[in-house]
Amino acid sequence: MSALARRKSQGAAGAVPPYILEDQVGFLLRKAQQRATEHFNAVMEQFGVTPTQFAALAKLHELGPTSQNLLGRLTAMDPATIFSVVGRLARRGWVAQSTDPLDARLVMISLTPEGEQAARKMIHLAPKVSQKTLAPLTPSEANLLLGLIGKLG
Predict the structure, then answer these.
(1) Where does 50-132 sit in CATH, by number?
(2) How far apart are CA 54 and CA 71, in angstroms?
(3) Region of residue 64 (left: phi > 0; alpha: psi -120 to 50; beta: else)
(4) Cα–Cα distance between 98 and 110 in angstroms, integer?
(5) In the prediction, which pLDDT does 89 show?
(6) Segment (H or E) for 130
(7) Which residues lie closer than 8 Å to 89 by C-beta, 6 or more apart?
(8) Does the CA dihedral 85-87-90-91 come out positive or negative?
(9) How far is CA 57 from CA 40, 78, 103, in A?
(10) Which of 31, 65, 118, 124 sits at a 20 to 30 Å CA gap from 8?
(11) How many percent of the chain have pLDDT more than 70?
């Protein structure tokens, strides 16, 4: 029984239940995100990338050259964040920037050969992050959780 359910059952009829932080969706999602990030950092430490940098590399590996704007949307990053992420990846020599030959207003991002090699290595290890994060759940619980979280996002 959750802390909120316990307090509700103990409270007076009609009384407004107290606000219990530990029962709030945002708090629980943040704790789950912290757990996932800890596992990500442990699995990916040899590459020295953040989850957002990995997301950009993985999406570029999947799609090939992509506009920076679209890459940001596909990886759920705002324009300032994707700009920063791409800049860091470019400084590492993992991505290259160019203008779209059909629309000079678009900045195209592509993996360099070094970026392609790094992305392949990371993608090979990436499933371990989800496995470790979801380890406390049964397979059916994990599938249910992923489906429900997918509905929220």
Answers:
(1) 1.10.10.10
(2) 12
(3) left
(4) 8
(5) 98
(6) helix 127-133
(7) 53, 56, 57, 95, 115
(8) negative
(9) 15, 16, 23
(10) 31
(11) 91
Domains in the chain: boundaries? 50-132
Question: Per residue in 31-46, pLDDT tens?
Answer: 999 999 999 999 999 9
SS3 string, 78-105, reads: CHHHHHHHHHHHHHCCCEEEEECCCCCC
- Predicted confidence (pLDDT) at residue 114 exceeds the cutoff of 80: yes
Q: What is the pLDDT of residues 52-108, one digit of tens each?
A: 999 999 999 999 999 999 999 999 999 999 999 999 999 999 999 999 888 888 999
Query: Which of 37, 77, 73, 61 is CA-nearest to residue 122?
Result: 61
Pairing of strands 95-99, 66-67: unpaired
| Rounded CA separation 123/105 (Å) | 31
Q: Are 60 and 111 in contact (CB under 8 A)?
A: yes
